[in-house]
Amino acid sequence: MKNLINRMRGVERDVIDKPGQDGSQGGAPFYKPQADEVEIFQAAYAKRLPVMLKGPTGCGKTRFLEHVAHTLGQPLVTVSCHEDLTSSDLVGRFLLEGEETVWQDGPLTRSVKEGAICYLDEIVEARTDTTVVIHPLTDHRRQLPLDKKSQIIDAHEDFMLVISYNPGYQTVLKDLKPSTKQRFVGIHFDYPSEEVEREIVAKESGGLDADRVEKLVAAGRKARALKDHGLEEATSTRALAYAGELMQAGLSPRVACRAAMIAPITDDPELIQALEEIFDAHFPESEAA
Amino acid sequence: MSEQVRNDGGADSEAGDLVEIEEILQHLEDMSFVAHRDAKEALPAIREFGAGPARRWIETARDLFFHDREAGKSFMRHSARMAEHVGGVEPWRAQAAEFARWVNSADALEGFMSQADRVFAAWGEDGEREWYATGLRWCERSLPDARAYFETDFDKLAAGRGIEGLRALIDPAETLFDERGLTLDCYLEGAPIARNLVGDGGLLSWARRGADLLKAGRSRGEAYFRLESDESLKLLLDALPGFRPRMHGRFLRLVMLAWLDADIPLADSSWKPGEGRPMLETDGRRLFMPAVMDSREEALVATQHAAAHLAYDTYALSRVERLFERAGSEHPPLDDRSRITWRPLFAAFGERMFRFQILFDLAEDLRVNARVAPRILRFLERLVRLAEAYERPAEPAGTYFDFALRAHRALLEGREPEDPRLARMLEPDADVVTAWEVAEELFADGAFPEITIEERAEAYLPGLSLNAALPVYPQRERNGELADFRDHEAHDEHKFEHEKQEEQPQQAPEDAQKDPDADIQTPQQETSGTGGRIGTGIPQPAQVAKRAAPYTPKKDGILYPEWDYREQRYISDWVNLYERVLDDEAPDRAAEILTRHADTLKRLTRGLEMQRPMRPAPLRKQMDGDELDTEAVIDYVADKKAGLSPKAFIYRRRAVQHRDTSVLMLADMSTSIMARHPGGQGKIVDRVREGMMLFAEAIDRVGDPCAIAGFASKQRDQVNYYWLKDFNEDLSATVRNRIAGVSGRLASRMGAGIRHSLEAFRRSSAQRRLLLILSDGRPADYDDGGDQRYLHEDTRMAMKEAVDAGVHPFCVTLDPSGSEYLPAIFGPGHYTIIDHVDELPRRLPEIYLRLRQ
């Protein structure tokens, strides 16, 4: 009953929900394919091969996965990995309930049992012992051993493992082990082409007018040229979408660009000036009002 | 006149005067033919003012002549003109007579005589008297100073402000002469220009600084007053209003990079205050920015416009050759740096060449601006707005200025140009040759007035500049594509220094200084010497034939193999490496670096506290400890209840959490780090030292085992490996002093350096080992036969060896073009580029701390 109320309030929902079950309306989250990534994923899914999504921050990896999971009608379980994530956080643990102990499945175990797509976001952040847990799941065995329960769970036929991996220099010391890497099908992502990006920004911002979308995307692409010249992460598609949303919410274009695309990524005064120069040129004062 | 005669006549009769004049003439004739002749020539003009004055005049002439022949001659030579202009013989006669008080005053007198009449006309009798009296005071102090005073044009001294201006300029000099013995001739070299910049009020302190320098060292002080030393320029520029491109070089570069994807380096031009309008120049590889421009807007327009010239083939070799073909001549022999210029073609226009040059530049500027405008938003708008706000120059320059402005305004508004002759410049196939043709057409039009070289600069719109100011490295046809534009020699110190000398030869010879277009004739300096920069810019032969120059290598050091990609095999014992201790210690500099970066260090330390083992990021699930780990306890109890027999790892402990990482920083210590800091002050090596120092301090605070080493090579048989700090060494004063004493030498054979570092790692037991390579360019050496790929491949293999040995290599480079070759060597994500050298000291420790997390 409580669950039902919470579910109705939208506060809480079970991690494993088939698309549509959670009561949300509408179709799959918007995703505009850049190349053949959807085909690759579907082929991998058909054979239930584990997939690795690579690419810079904010280029649409997570959105892509939400989208394909929805189109495939598969529940998606996302686990954001962090340093203190232990294998029992993934697999499960015994809990005390009164005098009893109750085994509580972790998100990975539930996905394995119920046949969901399990998405381990930024897997490199997790400890290596965590990544070893997934090994038996990623080869022909498709099994999850539960040491504490002395059980082995054979994966549901719809289960699929997806990890994301952002090759940046902060990961040098904790790169995935080659033995882990080679178990995955890799899909490479990059920032989309200008045309696609325009479409994405228009859609994400909720109907920003074409003129401003075009300028915004053009400006963002110019700003991207500054990567490696002080910018560690280039202006992402997500940042563009945020800027579009801020504009749509009534901010002037210049303010929106500063807030979404300059302030978060750099404190370098010259870089800020250069970025402002670019954005201001696209959105001249006269139109700012 | 008769009145004057009576007044001047006094008691003597006119006849007596005349007799005396004849006697003196006779006397002079006996003494000197020249004196007699000059006196006779001047006398009629003097006689007009009466016999008495004439007598006094000739007495003065005689006295001066007997005192100093030269003085007498100058007096006589200028007298006729003087008398005519002043309308009398006094007071200048009496004034000139005073010069007889000093020996060797002839030069000062010459200066006095040559302009006293003009002073008289300009400032009146009182003004002239003060001008003279001031000069005379200098005669009493020192004659060379007096000479400098009288020889300098009085109006220049006064800056057109009359006697007030003169006082303002000379008063500080008089004060400082008394205070510090500052000579006027030295002071006058730069003071008139300096006064324009710092104002009357700032002049005294400006000069006092110079006087102090002069005491410290003569040549340094003199350079200060000639406005040639950095010190004086800096002082003046600080007072100068406007935008300083040097301070904003990175901003301007980033903007060009964003709009045009062009990474064009900026450098300082030789422009100095007082040299007319500051303009940007280019040699096809760099943009030379003047120290000050009017505004940020102008600097932006100027850099973008110059980039447009490069992008749209103003300097393309093929086009320039066609210019010469049209003229039926050939490009004169290239200078030894293979640069081109079309300036010889201007010679055909003789005296009127400047008129043609402006028209030619105008047409070409319009063309490239039209081409680049769609790529840089608001470019034309900004240019037109600047030009409209600019004070229209006087004729004749104004005509050209208006013409250019109208053409650009039409372009901005999308109209056809008002002048149909310019329409051709906007056609898609127009090029620099078209500009020449259009310029010839315009040249024939009498509506454009004649113009002199002095007025030339004013004819240009703000932000635009002479297109042929410098000889230019010929460009291939780019057709708008600048993405591959590279600074071939940004880090090339030798070349850099050569160029510095070369770009500014105008100041050296006396006569070249007066000709702003001296570079047409100035012979280029010999720059083809040996010892080019290793790292990015060794002169490369067209073909790769041999692995190395043949000679017998030494083999008394530590031997390492090297990978030869052409044979796809290791050549064993190929490299001879020596471990050396760097004995250049610089304790003073070490202290200075630590002081200067005290703030950064404090900030770093605070950040480090977060990472320190002391921080209660407690160890969880321990066998014993200070408190219970709640989660572990629940797990434990639950597991136990479930019938398992878990081990009692249920405590938390605040113990030293040993992050088992050791790091070796390996610095490229090749010559290139001695290059000048691209932003101006100091050298790159200064930042490298600071970076290493902060790195060492930071790591020391974290407590990780750390070693610092540098390498430099001279061919394969001498790779030097310098230990600055070994793993087992503490960060002592000695280590700090060694780091502060780092300097660049020789080349960078990176592979050997890496291999030796791997050996060092064997001594460290840490689980995670990080090899941090600090580099500023490609690996290269003198004997790589010009084959860049050879050492690239070898370095790549050394990287692989490192990974196999359980060492994580990571490269931090200062080379902005590093992304061209680093991914291939280190792999994507295993390097980072710091294109802003000043950030190195701060970034280095940060990078390490991020890597070790």
TrEMBL record, chain A:
Compositional bias per record (Basic and acidic residues), positions renumbered to this chain: 9-20
Keyword vocabulary terms for this entry: ATP-binding, Nucleotide-binding
Domain CbbQ/NirQ/NorQ C-terminal intervals: 197-281
Pfam families hit by this protein: AAA_5, CbbQ_C
InterPro entries, per the entry: ATPase_dyneun-rel_AAA, CbbQ/NirQ/NorQ/GpvN, CbbQ_C, P-loop_NTPase
Chain ranges of the ATPase dynein-related AAA domain: 50-184
Membrane-traversing stretches: none
Record keyword Nucleotide-binding present: yes
Single GO MF annotation: ATP hydrolysis activity
Region (Disordered): 1-29
Family: Belongs to the CbbQ/NirQ/NorQ/GpvN family.
Name of the featured protein: CbbQ/NirQ/NorQ/GpvN family protein
Lineage: Bacteria, Pseudomonadati, Pseudomonadota, Gammaproteobacteria, Chromatiales
Automatic annotation (TrEMBL), chain B:
Organism: Thioalkalivibrio halophilus
Biased composition (Basic and acidic residues): 491-503
Name of the molecule in the record: VWA domain-containing protein
Every VWFA domain range: 662-851
Ranges for region Disordered: 491-550
PROSITE patterns assigned to the protein according to its UniProt record, in alphabetical order: VWFA (PS50234)
